[in-house]
Amino acid sequence: MIEVRDLHFHYAGGPSVLSGLNLRIDQGDRLGLYGENGAGKTTLFHLIMGLEFPGQGRVICFGEPRTTEAEFQDVRPRIGLLFQDAEDQLFCPTVLEDVAFGPLNQGCRRAAAEERVQEALEKVGLPGFEDRRIHTLSGGEKKRIAIAGLLAMKPDVLLLDEPAAQLDAAGLEILRTILRDWHGALVIASHRPVVFKETVTREVFLKNGVITG
Ligand SMILES: Nc1ncnc2c1ncn2[C@@H]1O[C@H](COP(=O)(O)OP(=O)(O)OP(=O)(O)O)[C@@H](O)[C@H]1O
Fold first, then answer.
1. Cα–Cα distance for residue pair 155/132, rounded to 1 Å
2. Parent domain of 105
3. What's 15's domain CATH number?
4. ipTM greater than 0.85, yes or no?
5. Exposure of 71 by Cβ count < 10 A (0-12 exposed, 13-18 middle, 19+ buried)?
6. How close is the Cα of 144 to the center of ligand 1, in Å?
7. Are 95 and 132 in contact (CB under 8 A)?
8. What is the rounded distance in angstroms from the CA atom of residue 120 to the CA atom of residue 149?
9. What is the CA(11)–ligand 1 centre distance, in A?
10. Does any ligand 1 atom lie closer than 6 A to the CB of residue 37?
11. Packing angle, helices 169-180 and 139-153, rounded to 10
12. In what order do the strands lie in the sheet with 56-61?
């Protein structure tokens, strides 16, 4: 579904972050992507989504090489990227608008989109939150609403960047249950392998700009 080949990347004026990274994510893959703070996990997700572009190497999504902004436009609705910080993800005034944004953007009719919202809010354990204003939510609630927004999109792949951050024990258990029932491909980026040990079936490590093990 997604393959990156020989990826090299550095931020303007900065040191090399990725230096020849190769990775393949197949249908049904459940991958733990581990690495220390600053290893480049978020950067890799951003390159897969076309939010950054590699200095060298290839990003292939759903069978097609993607190099230009236009080529990434049909990739984004098919990949649910959970940002590390929920504040970066939520941008509508209310929960209903935010969670419905993805399905509406994909062309769903309003009634169908609102049905997806109800379903997703049930899954994250926050039914009845539709009319809450985003800025009144707690950090953990924001994270769960961001997850609901991804579920409502029904993407082919979930890329979750430190998904446990901001979640308490109950929130983490809800997320583990959601992911246990998730049938699409899944990549969890984390610097704490132990948290999702039971959730993933394959583990790789990002170190010195490349994938190991
Ligand atoms: N926009 C940016 N401009 C300059 N440098 C950046 C930018 N974003 C990230 N970096 C740097 O690139 C490196 C990789 O960062 P990245 O966020 O990809 O790592 P990470 O593995 O996700 O880390 P963490 O576990 O702390 O979230 C870090 O050294 C970081 O400081």
1. 25
2. 2-212
3. 3.40.50.300
4. yes
5. middle
6. 24
7. yes
8. 7
9. 9
10. yes
11. 10
12. 16-25, 2-10, 56-61, 64-65
Q: Using CA positions, which residue lies closest to atom 16 of ligand 1?
A: 40
Q: Which residue has the tokens 């009144």?
A: 136
> For the whole model, what pTM was predicted?
0.96
Q: Is the CB of 123 under 6 A from ligand 1?
A: no
Q: Which residues of the chain have pLDDT under 70?
A: none
Q: What per-residue confidence (pLDDT) applies to 104?
A: 96
| Residue ID of nearest Cα to ligand 1 atom 4 | 11
Task: Using most ligand atoms within 8 A of CB, pick from 37, 43, 162, 188 the residue to mutate for ligand 1.
Answer: 43
Is any atom of ligand 1 closer than 6 Å to the C-beta of 38? yes
Q: How many domains are contained in the chain?
A: 1
pLDDT of residue 92: 94
Q: Which of 167, 99, 102 is nearest to 130 (CA)?
A: 99
